Every structure is written in structure tokens, then in C-alpha cells.
Amino acid sequence: MDTSTPLVELSGVSKRFGGTQALDTVDLELRTGEVHALVGENGAGKSTLGKIVAGLYAPDTGELRVDGEQVSKWDPVRAQRSGVVMIAQELSLVDDLTVLENVFLGVEANTLGVLHRRVAECFETLRALADFDLDASAKVGDLRIADQQKVEIMRALARDARVIVMDEPTSSLTAHETERLHRLIAQLREQGRSIVYVSHFLDAVLEVADTVTIMRDGQRVRTGPVANETKATMVQAMLGRELAVTFPERRPRADASTEPLLVVDGITTETGIEEASLVVRPGEIVGLLGLVGSGRSEIARAIAGADPITAGSITFRGEKCRRWTTRRAIASGLVMVPEDRHAQGLILQRSVRENISLAFLDRFATAGVIRPAAEKKEAGALAEALSMRPPRIGLDIGGLSGGNQQKALLAKWLVGDPAFVILDEPTRGVDIGAKATIYQLVADLADRGVGVLLISSEHEEVLALSSRAYTVSNGRIAGEVDPAVFGVSDLLAHLFSVEQEIGAIA
Amino acid sequence: MTSTTARTTAPRITPAKALAFLRDYAVLILLAALLIVLAIASPSFFTFANLVNIVNQNTPLALIAVAGTFVIISGSFDLSTAAIYAVGSVAAAWVAMETGNVVLGLLAPPVIGLALGVFNGLAVTVLRVHSFLATLASSLIFQAIAVLITGGALIQVSLDGFSELGRGRIGGVFYTVVILIVFVAIMWFVLKGTVFGRHVFAVGGNPDAAQLSGVRVDRTRVMVFALSGLAAGMAAAIGVSRIASGQPQAGAGLEFDAIAAIILGGTSIYGGVGAVWRSVAGVFLIALIGNGFDILGFNPQIKDLVTGAIILAAVGLAAAGIKRR
Q1: B99 interfacial to chain A (CB closer than 8 Å)
Q2: Chain A contact for B188, CB < 8 A?
Q3: Core-most of A156, A221, A263, B304, by most CB within 10 Å?
Q4: How do beta strands A468-473 and B169-170 pair?
Q5: Is A303:A325 a contact under the CB 8 Å cutoff?
Q6: Alpha helices (H) in A218-268, listed in sequence order
């Protein structure tokens, strides 16, 4: 490794989001002509670190040096000027513009605002460089995600980027496309560019990266040459910690002869679920294990009545669910705590009390008129039971920390004494204290005979809490595993090999 | 609270809190300031007769703005209220003259308004057209219907009692003022104290979350448009009764006056936040600015300029508050 001045250097960088410490005094050195992988579990801080390099997030504390010079102000525009470009996981293209227009957006060669003719030539040069098969005049909105990603990469090349930060670039690519991307990355490195490669695909990291920084809980575990790592050493470093949270005792599997609470039989949806089947019995916590984008949440949404099913059936409490909508599901005691609490769960402008009572307002109303005392009493009692801080239910919920917002979201569904609860990412962006409360709550629900379907990107928590678990891949239920004997590393190996098989077919 | 375990600390007034208070109650502060200035400037202003007159004149606008508050809180716009007002006006005159029945004539606008409001709601929810476009289009349709009913002319109503609704008084107070007070009280309660009102806030604050919470989002939307149409119809009944003639161009500009008053009151254009009293205050703030121009003898040609500047300032203040969050 060369010892010259790093291209980009972060030292002692910390970043907090609400109640979550996303990064805790992290150092990072990025050298010319290296592919530097950032790996870690979901929530370990690898994406946050990548976004700080590209100027999308400003660090709370810590220093940033570019070419050895300390930089005080750093944002996407300044980063681009210094040759640092990010290709985000959520692509940031203009759907209505063509491929060519997107590639040169913001850096259009012009004279007094009039576009140059030779733009098409520039595009051809870039396309040859990248070896992409893209139609310059196609509308970006009509392209597949993988092709859109290529447009993003060409966009970075058009800016003559010295550093390209790629956040999970292969998550929506086929095996073949991934291989091509990796060839391109090698080529970019030959040209002296540096790549920051944020990924949880460890095989890809081993294949393409020179250096790897392993993250865990917002801290850097170590940085070193990839040549010194194996998949096993990286997994160990990603997980190798004392469990910070203690889980409640695992619920036993229900007797197979027990009448099932929920039977999902071969459902297919327009959201990509194909012939998914599963069973949950009263008092069971059943996990859905899969990678982000595997279809876990879509299965949950279909069961909760949020997305219509086109084939198959759902039977709840022995009755076939017909014309299944969220409203009917809620009325019959099946509720879902959705994945994204801001987009799908909460009314951020309204108070904690109004959010908690929303789904079961009729319980606090006579002939459509709300009885405020009853509403306050119930919301207050739940806020207390879940030890929400501050316990003031009159506050706007938007001002609470992530953990307390999540507690309120859970409280909202507890109001109705549900018989079945789907929890989609119940601890995302939640601090450790709140996590413990939420785990205990889930266990208590199951103790009362409630059926629970648990989804989480923190596989560890699904494995620790579930009585049984299904693996999900590409919109299908891939199999059933016993979480008591299955470790996280077994699981990752399992999920990744499943993904690869499917990738190879595609 | 039955028991207070926390230490009670005297609430401290910080600049941020002061600004937040100012932003929350800007419309009331301005209204009070204007009342005081006008009361001092002119002895004829702060008289019962003048104040009742101001309320009476602005009743149709206030009715529309109060119902419009529900539409805006639910995250939609209703640009068709003026057109509904026009249809209501000519329909009232036409029905009254055809049947000779004053009561039937004056009942027509609210009924028709309700129906046209439901039409708007269905256009928005079934066709999935943005409410701005849907009601812009429907207002053209309604306006055309108004013209077709009259054949482009006026319909004079020469029936005894037709003007009683708009001009009559009970104990020195116009019927219209009583109607307005009752309507405001009911709507205030409906928004704050009922399941429907809560759903209106939820639908405007986060429609996806509302849907996933089992709220009938589409039905709630239809209902707010129906309410808005009903109020426009009621306003039309009062207006047509006052002038005793149905005119297809009646009420022109009312839709924008109502939206301006709602926004000036402090109801969020982004939905999810707002109150009935705010819109009432907004209506009368604009009314007092106009009245003040008359009383103080200012050039009436710059009245709109001043009103516009005040609305811009109020909305700017609210936007500054949103950014700081």
C-alpha cells in the first residue's frame, strides 16, 4: 500500500440521528487507486460513513481532509467539485429525462446556456469506457433498476470523479451484471480512481476490494487488506460482540396439532410475492428471515390487507378472508406495525395521543363523538406501560426520539387487543433501551396467546425471539428453519447462497 | 393530572418560544391590533351596528372558508366553491320562480351544493385526479351549468319573503349572523371532537398511515368535499336572498378569498394541521383591512396590495417555522 497522502481522510467522525449513535469516532483513509469496501450488518454505520465521504451527511464531530487539506464545509456540491461522487442506493435520476440528459445533468457542455452538439460524442466515449449497453435516447423511467444504476455510474464518470462512493451497488443486479460491474470497477481503479464500495455481500467484497473496513455498531472494528480476510473472519468481526441487549426467553414451538391462527396458502401478489405459504399458531412468534428486498415486507402487507392478493388464500381464525382490506383485517384483530414509521406509521404533525388512538378511535367514541377522558386515559396508560419518555401524550409525536416514536406506534396497535400482530422492523433506528422494552413486549404478547409474525433486518433478533422461522427469497418462502439451532452466520451463508443460486439462473 | 411528581419549574420564555407563540397566534394578534387601531381612529367603527354589518357582509365567505378548512386540512383544495355558489344562486331563483315557493327555492342551493361536492369528491377519489385539477375542471362545468340555467341572463325573484333570509333580523341581529355562529360552533366541534374530524387530520397528515390504520381515506375525502359544497350552497342561498336575483357570475373570486383566509389563519397548506377558528379569524382580518381602508379614507386602490402583502408575510412566517424543525 502506498504511503502518500490519502485522497480523503476522516478522523474521529461521529454522527447521531435522534436517539441513535450511527457513527462513533470513526477514522477512514482512502487512497488513490484503491477499492475500499465498507462492510457491516444493517445499521452498523457503513452507509452513513459512505454518505459522509460524499458530503450527503455532515458529521457532528471529527475532521475531514481532502488531499491532505482540512475541509470545514463539505456538501454534495463541494464534494463533486473535489471529484467525490456518490451513487446512492436510492437512485437519484430524473425519470422523465433521457439517459444522455441524465448523464450530463448539471455538467452540460454549453456556451451561454446553449447545449453543444458534441454531447453525443462524449456519451459514446463514456459508454465505450464503461462498456455498457445503453440507449442514449431511452427515458430513464422506462429502464430496469440495473440499467438505471449504469446511468448513475456513467454520471459519475461524466463528472470525471476521482472517488466514487457506491452504496450497495449490486443489490438489484443479476450475477452476470454484478460481474460486469466488478470488471468496470477494476478498470476504474486502473485509471487511478478510488472506489468506496459499501456492501453486505462479502463474496463481492473479497472479489473486488483491495482494502476493507469492517464496521459494527457505528464503530470501526478494523481496516486492512482484503488479502488478509476470509468470509469467516469478516463475519466474525461484524458480529463479534457481547450481546448488548438481552432477549427474553424463547417461546416454544406450538404443538403442531394446535388449531392455526393464521394460514397463508400460496398467495401471489402484484408486489412480487409468488405462492407464499406459512402458518402461525396462537402464542407463536414466527420469524421471516431474508435480505432487504427479498419480499418479507410484501408478504406482511398482503397478510395485513394492504396489498391485494391475486391468487391463493388467507385464513384467519378459521375463516377465509374475502375482500381483505386493512380495515377488515384490523376489525377482525389482525394488525400490522409497518416498516417505515415516518412514511407509513405515524401522523408526525399530530400528538402522541391522537396517534395512539387513531386505529381504534371508535373505542373512545359514542355515535362518532370522541370521549376525550377515555382516550387520554388509555393513551396515558400505554405510554406509561411502555415507559415512553417524556410521558406527555399531548406533545407532537414528530419531536420524540425514534425509540419513543416506535413505542407509540406499538401502543397504537395494542389499543385494539389484537389476536395477531405483524411486526415489520420493530426496532429499526431504535436505541438499546427501547429495544429491550420492545422485545419484552413481543414476548408478553405471545404469552397472552397472540400470534406474532416478526420481520427484522437484525437477523439476530429474529433468531433470538422466534419459535420458528421461514426464510424468504425473491418473493418466495424458501424454507423453514429452527432458530434455536441456527446461528446468524449459518443464516447469512444460507441466505447468500440462495441469492446466488437465483442470481445464477437469472 | 391527578398527581404531580415532577418538580414544577416556572415556564421560561425563550425567544424561540416567543416566536412560536407569535406564529401560532399571529392572526389573532393582528386582528386585535387592527380592532384597537380602528376603534381609536374612528368612533363609528366600534359600534354594534357596524360590527354586525361586517359579520353579516362576510357570512357567505366565512361559511365557505370554515368548510374549506376541512378540505385543506385533509390535504386537498376545492377551487369550485365559487362555481357551486353560482349554480346555487341561479337554481334558487329559478326554483323559486317556477314553483312560487320561497322555502323550496332557498333550500335548493344547499342540496345542490352537497350533490356537486360529492361529485368533486368522487372525481378526486375514483378518477385519482389531484384535487386542484379536478375542482378546476369541475368549476368550469358548474359555471357552464349556471349559465345554461339562466340562458345567460339574470333571474329576478319577485316573491315576498325571498329576501327575508339575507336581510331579516331577529332582535337586531341578522339571521345570517345567527346561522354563521351556529355553523362555526358545529364545525369547530366536528373537527375537534369527532371521529370524522380526527380522520380529516389523519388523511391530510399522512394518507398512507391513515389507510394502514383502517381509516376510510377515500370516504373521508368525499365527505370533506361534500361539506365544502354544502357550505358553498348555504352561502349561495344567503347571497341570492340578499339581492333577490340569480346571476351566473355571482360569487366570482370567492374560492380564492376563502383559501386566502384559511391560509392567513394559519391552517397548513400541506395538510394535517389547522383549526376552524383560524379561518374565521382569517376572514375577519381580511374584512377589517377592507373596512379600515374605508373608515380611514385610504386609497382603496391599494387595498388588495396591502391584503396580499399581509398574506405573504403570514405564510412566510409559517414557512420559516417549518424550516426550523
Answers
A1: no
A2: no
A3: A156
A4: unpaired
A5: no
A6: 231-239
- The CA distance from A280 to the nearest CA of chain B, in Å, is 22
pLDDT, tens only, A421-446:
999 999 887 766 788 889 999 999 99
Number of H helices, E strands in chain A: 16, 24
C-alpha cell recorded at residue A313: 388464500
- Contact (Cβ atoms closer than 8 angstroms) between residue B232 and residue B64: yes
pLDDT at A162 over 60: yes
CATH of domain A254-333+419-506: 3.40.50.300
> Which amino acid, one-letter code, is at B278?
R
Say whether B198 and A370 touch across the interface (CB within 8 A).
yes
Closest-CA residue in chain A for B204?
Answer: A347
Q: What is the pLDDT of residues A189-217, one digit of tens each?
A: 888 889 999 987 788 889 999 999 998 88
- As a whole number of angstroms, the distance between CA A354 and CA A409 comes to 11
Q: What are phi and psi of B285, to 5 degrees?
A: -65, -45
Q: Which amino acid belongs to residue A280? A: V
What's A273-321 look like in SS3? CCCEEEEECCCCEEEEECCCCCCHHHHHHHHCCCCCEEEEEEEECCEEC
Nearest to B35 by CA among B305, B301, B281: B281
Residue B164 grid coordinates: 327575508
- The model's confidence at residue B323, banded by pLDDT at 50, 70 and 90, is very low
In total, chain B counts a number of residues equal to: 325
Say how far apart CA B252 and CA B232 lie, in whole Å: 12
Q: Are strands A84-87 and A110-111 parallel, antiparallel or unpaired?
A: unpaired
- Partner residue facing A365 (CB), from B195, B213, B272: B195
Q: Which CATH class name applies to A8-239?
A: alpha beta
**pTM for the predicted model, two decimal places:** 0.77
In this prediction, residue A134 carries a pLDDT of 83
Q: What ipTM was predicted for this assembly?
A: 0.87
Does B211 lie at the interface with A, CB-CB under 8 angstroms? yes
Please give the Cα distance from A412 to A337 (Å, whole number): 9
Question: Is B209 part of the contact surface with chain A (CB cutoff 8 Å)?
Answer: yes
d(C-alpha A170, C-alpha A1), whole Å? 26
Beta pairing partners, A37: A197, A212
**Which of A421, A457, A467, A469 shows the shortest CA–CA distance to A441?**
A421
Residue (of B202, B281, B195, B231) closest to B67 by Cα position: B231
**Full set of structural domains in chain B with CATH:** 47-324 (1.10.3470)
Which chain B residue lies closest to A399 (C-alpha atoms)? Answer: B325
CB A419 within 8 Å of CB A256: no
Alpha-carbon gap, residue B106 to A203, rounded angstroms: 78
Are residues A370 and B209, on separate chains, in Cβ contact within 8 Å?
Answer: no
Q: Do domains A8-239 and A254-333+419-506 have the same CATH topology?
A: yes
A287: which strand partners?
A: A454, A469
- Cα distance between residue A15 and residue A62, in whole Å: 9
Cα–Cα distances in Å, from A430 out to A125, A437, B127, B248? 47, 11, 40, 59
The upper half-sphere exposure of residue B12, i.e. CA atoms within 13 Å in the direction of its Cβ, equals: 4
User: How far apart (Å, rounded) are the C-alpha atoms in residues A170 and A174?
Assistant: 8
Task: Name the residue ranges covered by the structural domains of chain A.
Answer: 8-239, 254-333+419-506, 345-417
HEC secondary structure over B224-274 = HHHHHHHHHHHHHHHHHHHHCEECCCCCCCHHHHHHHHHHHHCCCCCCCCC
Q: How confident is the model at residue A43 (pLDDT cuts 50, 70, 90)?
A: low
Residues in chain A: 506
The crossing angle, in degrees rounded to 10, of helices B254-265 and B303-324 is: 40
